[in-house]
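DATA SHEET
Item: assembly model
Revision: 1
Owner: S.N.
Input lines:
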Amino acid sequence: MVKFSFRVKDELGLHARPAGLLVKEAAKCSSKVTMKKGGKSGDAKRIFNIMGMGIKYNDEVEIIVEGEKEAEEAKTLEAFIQENI
Amino acid sequence: MKTFYGKPVFGGIAVGEIRVLKKEEKNVHRSHIDDGEKELKRLEKAVDETLTQLKQLYEKALKEVGESGAAIFEVHQMMLEDQGYQESIQNMIMTQQVNAEYAVAVTADNFAGMFASMEDAYMKERAADVRDISERLIGVLLEEEKKEINADVPVIIVAQDLTPSETVQMDKSKVQSFVTRHGSTNSHTAILARTMNVPALIGLDYEDGIHGKIGIVDGFKGELIVNPTEEVLALYQKKQEEEAAKRELLQQLKGKETITRSGREIRLYANIGGISDLQSVMTNDAAGIGLFRSEFLYLEKEDYPTEEEQFQVYRSVAETMAGKKVIIRTLDIGADKQIDYFGLEKEDNPAMGYRAIRICLKRPEIFKTQLRALYRASAYGNIGIMFPMIISVKEVRSIKEIVEEVKRELTSQGVTYGEVELGIMIETPAAVMVSGELAGEVDFFSIGTNDLTQYTLAIDRQNAALDDIYDPHHPAVLKMIQMVIENGHKGGAWVGICGELGADLELTDTFVEMGIDELSVSPSCILPIRRKIREHD
């Protein structure tokens, strides 16, 4: 299991477009990707799960990657998030 | 002629034939099915077909409105493929032995309900996305023919509400404007209208009878005028041409620096009176906000606005401007802007009376609430604070003492705040005369030319009878401005103008020559002034 966290930089929060980007990228991973914020958690490969978490601007979100290739996939995912979300 | 009123989401003028779109309610019947597997296959095929349609819409939108407008259709594809959504439909088919259309309709209601119950206004709107994809899927299942809106003349589209796919399927070369009864400023219609640069109105209660009539949409005033008289039509056609000219200017000057030919940069900021003005600050490409009048916070209320209420507003402005300068002027009431709960006495000469900083220094509890809110918000952006109606160095020192007190309190409470530039309005002849001394006390001056002119010329600017001698170009005023700029620079303070004179194109060259550092004007004046400055040697 590999964890990292990030802060949402988009003013509208994790709205449809960034959520879509995240799902697309998470779907490329063979690992299970889970998102956590406050008490809520959701599957990062499922757009309704992510949008349903109501993540707002400046919220801190934790990403948990579990699987055989977790280390490298977490790294790729983190780089993608820093760049795009 | 008849006028309907709505809320504008994007400014502009449009003229065209009105098309009222009536939404056909899809009738979905619940029916019992025996072969669940067969129904699942039918569903799977329909999902594939719907995905193909969404991909085509994405391509179409990409070409017509660009990537940001098209992205929603990619998101729609993901929503359609969402595991939870799919499983819900499949489960319902298998366990309740119902037809696919019905299972989709129920699932759509459940998922839309989840969004509709969210607090966030943006997320609430996403319920419409779920309905949009579900209706499309049901349409495919029912083997409905795709309907497209085609027109051979310019049209104004009027509807209850528009889904993203309806809007993108329209022939953009003919659609002049969108008008809807429902929807919000975050709805896709609104977003698309902004991307397409067409005026749009929401919350407009129309009558179906207007279909086929000639209409005018005034996206500034929020009006839909049906069957206009010839005079009104001519007036709006002229306005439309002016708008087109302005847009062209925007194209040329947006994103360009405000520098003279010799390379001197002038900061061109916007004056705003509330959060609703931020949109035009963005579209007109201001480099920052040079005057944010905080009065509206007090005028809108029945009682003093709390620190938290103020903080939310200041923070939101600071965040929206994303690191660009936001100069907020502290409370400037009294005189012509009266507020009941302040309990101010009526005065014979309110322009010279108990107002602005004079109230704040006598009632520090009101002042400190505002300062606390401002400093707290400063952690979220680049905030500057300026104080109105200053006449002496003593006042500025008292203000700075209160500011220090507020900062100490925040520090001791563990509240973080950012670097804040402090400045004063120069709008009294007294402040001009002592500007040399004042410059050492503050980071910047902002010249309020409206009051400065009225106090210098001793002419009440509300008195129409004196209009012929009220000369804002009076040499006395211009000499004062020159003096303030020189004294400010000597004392290390930068100097700007935030009064109406700052937007006077006849004086732009003069101000640049005088050495002005910043001009803050109403958002619509930004680009014409930028052009003027870029032409200056």
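QC remark: Strands of chain A lie at 2-7, 32-37, 40-43, 60-66.
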